[in-house]
């Protein structure tokens, strides 16, 4: 069998390839995860429309380019060393809790995509997989998570950050922050339920060596949303306010773009959450229902807050509520009943609708409310499992232990991201963060890209 991973195809004997069928890989699961990977990748252009619509007319192209730029930089880096840092088999259970380099160019060969499995009673060295899905398919799926996490941060620095600096920051940040945190949570590291992790240190291990009370992050509450939201807060504070912030109105220039982006994000999020099950099974169906219920509840809750507070329920509020609900349910979608998912989503809608006003109170310019939505809803979704997780949460038959574990992993993620983002920011600072005030006033689309979104002449 030939398995082409680079320009020289690698010949793999048939008896070293994990077969499809009983005891091997599942064609149905594999097809679903390939589809889910495409859905998650589609979320980043959706985010570009969402952020682009929220921006002013003179900066919409730059805002959208920051998302597309993330797709380019992060995809290449993930193939070169991102997979190795996040999921290398040498790391899992091996005590490497930060996911540091093992074989940085893992996809140039098959050694990092192999494993030993028992087939017909014989331990066989095979080209392996994650569960019933080939490892290379899991690489594709996880690549898309890394892409959108970096793109999410861009909303906090809209209209004032140099495009080249953004690309450099994104490449360094995904390497030194996202990949290590991904390994800590999903790769058997510090924030996982593995022996030696924080949860095992606090509440001990079972007979198989796993934590008695394992952290829960089904699809990326810590790895994606707390991570991106905290990085966004650090950058917003370091970069400073936009010219005219607090004095001029920064209104969305294209609300239909905002709604289109929210619709694409909701659609793609089924790949994000449901795909994280790694199989097309009953739990995947529960995740789909929970994701929809929480998102709908968050949208309605946000609109209710707007109606009570401002007298109007807005379309931008509906779109923002959708995203808040999607964020909150991400870590919890596989461990709640549909009813508790509605509760989690509704609370997320209220919290985020109130939190977006904090930037005016505290004086930081989080341009497109990445902090108010992703950090706040991500924290709530992660901690909510301590209250509502089936058979583990405080209100559904469990004790306080799960709540403590969820709080601790959220806190560690916040501290790790804040410190590392600050370090990276000072590394990149000599290159210059911001465009000049004159360029900002003229419009970053024209000065950075020599383009305008709309030809009105």
UniProtKB/TrEMBL annotation:
- Give the gene symbol: amt
Q: What is this protein called?
A: Ammonium transporter
Q: Which InterPro entries match?
A: Ammonium/urea_transptr (IPR029020), Ammonium_transpt (IPR001905), Ammonium_transpt_CS (IPR018047), NH4_transpt_AmtB-like_dom (IPR024041)
Q: Where in the cell is it found?
A: Cell membrane; Membrane
Q: Which UniProt keywords apply?
A: Ammonia transport, Membrane, Transmembrane, Transmembrane helix, Transport
Family, as annotated: Belongs to the ammonia transporter channel (TC 1.A.11.2) family.
Give one GO term, molecular function aspect. Answer: ammonium channel activity
The residue ranges of the Ammonium transporter AmtB-like domain are 31-454
């Amino acid at each position: 069998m030939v398995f082409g991973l680079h320009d020289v195809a690698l010949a793999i004997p048939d008896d070293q390839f994990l077969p499809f069928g009983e005891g091997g890989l599942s064609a149905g699961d594999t097809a679903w995860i390939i589809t889910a990977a495409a859905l998650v990748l589609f979320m980043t252009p959706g985010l570009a429309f969402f952020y682009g619509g929220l921006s002013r007319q003179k900066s919409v192209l730059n805002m959208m380019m920051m998302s597309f730029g993330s797709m380019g930089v992060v995809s290449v880096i993930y193939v070169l060393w991102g997979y190795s840092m996040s999921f290398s088999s040498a790391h899992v259970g091996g005590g490497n809790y930060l996911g540091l380099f093992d074989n940085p160019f893992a996809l140039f060969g098959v050694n990092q995509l192999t494993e030993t499995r028992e087939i017909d009673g014989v331990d066989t060295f095979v080209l392996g997989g994650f569960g019933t899905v080939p490892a290379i398919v899991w690489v594709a799926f996880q690549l898309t998570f890394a892409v959108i996490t970096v793109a999410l941060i861009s909303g906090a620095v809209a209209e004032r950050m140099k495009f080249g600096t953004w690309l450099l920051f994104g490449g360094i940040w995904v390497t030194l922050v996202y990949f290590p945190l991904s390994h800590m949570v999903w790769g058997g590291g510090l924030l996982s339920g593995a022996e030696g992790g924080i949860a095992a240190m606090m509440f001990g291990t079972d007979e198989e060596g796993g934590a008695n009370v394992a952290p829960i992050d089904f699809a990326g509450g810590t790895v994606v949303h707390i991570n991106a939201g905290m990085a966004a807060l650090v950058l917003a504070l370091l970069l400073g306010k936009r010219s005219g912030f607090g004095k001029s109105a920064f209104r969305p220039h294209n609300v239909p773009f905002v709604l289109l982006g929210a619709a694409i994000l909701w659609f793609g999020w089924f790949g994000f959450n449901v795909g994280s099950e790694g199989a097309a099974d009953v739990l995947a169906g529960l995740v789909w229902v929970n994701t929809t219920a929480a998102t709908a509840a968050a949208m309605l809750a946000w609109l209710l807050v707007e109606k009570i507070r401002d007298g109007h329920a807005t379309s931008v509020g509906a779109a923002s509520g959708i995203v808040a609900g999607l964020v909150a349910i991400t870590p919890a979608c596989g461990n709640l009943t549909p009813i508790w998912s509605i509760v989690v989503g509704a609370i997320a809608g209220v919290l985020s609708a109130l939190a977006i006003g904090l930037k005016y109170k505290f004086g930081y310019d989080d341009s497109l409310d990445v902090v108010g939505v992703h950090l706040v809803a991500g924290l709530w979704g992660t901690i909510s499992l301590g209250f509502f997780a089936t058979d583990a949460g405080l209100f559904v038959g469990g004790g306080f232990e799960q709540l403590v574990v969820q709080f601790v992993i959220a806190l560690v993620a916040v501290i790790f991201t804040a410190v590392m983002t600050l370090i990276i920011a000072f590394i990149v600072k000599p290159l210059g963060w911001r465009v000049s005030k004159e360029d900002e006033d003229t419009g970053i689309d024209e000065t950075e890209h020599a383009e305008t979104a709309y030809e009105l002449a």
